[in-house]
């Protein structure tokens, strides 16, 4: 068997193997000392693993993203290490106040055990989080202000591991943080929430894998790169309105609600040639602009003026 054939066959199994590997890694190291001094260390390992896949399984329509690397690094730092903390600091008092003063109790559930055993809480959390994020994602595409925030994420011209977190922090918080804060107030078991968090976020990160890997039947369950590329396609499939494939981690919500799209030809999935903003707006490398412009706060730095013409 040729090296090309080996890569083609292994490309069918690499995603499920890595899904299981990194979910297991996260769950089994929740209380390891490394998590105290380097939060999200497993996420960083995952990032490097996907970058390696992108080099090994070169995508035929891949484009250069080198000039966006500094923006990608800043976006990862802000959204992985700052956005969740700031969002929790601002919203948790309000989320705790509402049930305590309007429902007559501090939590919606008296104790984590009242919501059932952990093995039941985990699938409930997975379904709740993924359904919330599916509909929030759809709203971010059809609401004018939310699209203004979210559209920066759609200006990337190639899906890569490094640009999965390229998003305005408010856009990121609406889709990825608030739902976990809300479910934490409900009173779910902390360990169940950590497992659900790891599963949903690991599968979501893999959706931006820029490698030419195939997922087969997993395309109907998870948001794989094959599925997610169509969500980022410049040309929205006819009849799908604003976009398709809104699921963040699980694609079966798209199947259920009629927004799933992944065409096949001769037994292989067809992939979009062009990825980017549907209106053709170029990618934005200035992270400060992504951060401030949607709120009208961005002001370009004043550059030194050159020689003025004589009057």
Summarize the structure.
With 311 residues, the protein is mainly α. It has helices spanning 3-10, 14-28, 34-37, 41-56, 69-81, 83-102, 118-142, 144-150, 169-176, 178-186, 190-206, 225-231, 252-257, 287-292; strands at residues 264-265, 268-269.
Structure, explained:
The chain is mainly alpha-helical and 311 residues long. It has one domain (3-295). It contains 14 helices and 2 strands. It has helices at 3-10, 14-28, 34-37, 41-56, 69-81, 83-102, 118-142, 144-150, 169-176, 178-186, 190-206, 225-231, 252-257, 287-292, and strands at residues 264-265, 268-269. β1 (264-265) and β2 (268-269) form a beta hairpin.
Name the features.
311 residues; mainly alpha; 2 strands; globular; disordered N terminus
Strand content: under 5%
> What is the chain-wise order of helices and strands?
HHHHHHHHHHHHHEEH
Helical percentage: 40-55%
Per DSSP, the total helix count is 14
Estimated structural class: mainly alpha
Distance between the termini: 77 Å
The count of domains is 1
Roughly how many Å is the radius of gyration? 21 Å
Low-confidence segments:
1-9
Largest sheet: 2 strands, antiparallel
How confident overall, as mean pLDDT? 83
Number of strands: 2
Strand line-up across the major sheet: 1-2
């Amino acid at each position: 068997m040729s090296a090309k054939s080996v890569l083609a066959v292994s490309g069918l199994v690499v995603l499920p193997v890595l899904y299981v590997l990194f979910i297991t890694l996260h769950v089994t190291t929740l209380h390891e000392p490394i998590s105290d001094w380097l939060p999200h260390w497993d996420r960083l390992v995952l990032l490097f693993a996907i970058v390696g896949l992108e080099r090994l399984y070169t995508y035929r329509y891949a484009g250069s993203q080198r000039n966006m690397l500094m923006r990608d690094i800043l976006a990862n730092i802000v959204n992985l290490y700052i956005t969740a903390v700031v969002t929790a600091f601002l919203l948790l008092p309000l989320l705790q106040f509402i049930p305590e003063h309007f429902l007559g109790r501090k939590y919606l559930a008296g104790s984590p055990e009242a919501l059932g055993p952990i093995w039941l809480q985990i699938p409930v959390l997975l379904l709740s989080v993924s359904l919330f994020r599916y509909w929030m994602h759809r709203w971010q595409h059809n609401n004018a202000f939310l699209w203004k925030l979210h559209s920066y994420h759609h200006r990337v011209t190639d899906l890569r591991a490094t640009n999965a977190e390229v998003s305005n922090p408010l856009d990121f918080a609406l889709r990825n943080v608030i739902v976990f804060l809300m479910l934490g107030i409900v009173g779910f078991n902390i360990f169940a929430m950590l497992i659900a968090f790891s599963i949903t976020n690991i599968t979501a990160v893999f959706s931006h894998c820029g490698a030419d890997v195939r997922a087969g039947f997993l395309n109907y369950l998870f948001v794989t790169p094959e599925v997610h590329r169509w969500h980022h396609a410049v040309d929205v499939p006819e009849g799908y309105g604003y976009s398709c494939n809104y699921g963040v981690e699980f694609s079966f919500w798209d199947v259920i609600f009629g927004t799933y799209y992944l065409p096949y030809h001769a037994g292989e999935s067809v992939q979009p040639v062009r990825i980017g903003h549907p209106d053709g707006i170029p990618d934005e490398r200035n992270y400060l602009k992504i951060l401030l412009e949607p709120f009208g706060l961005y002001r370009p730095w004043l550059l030194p003026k050159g020689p003025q013409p004589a009057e």
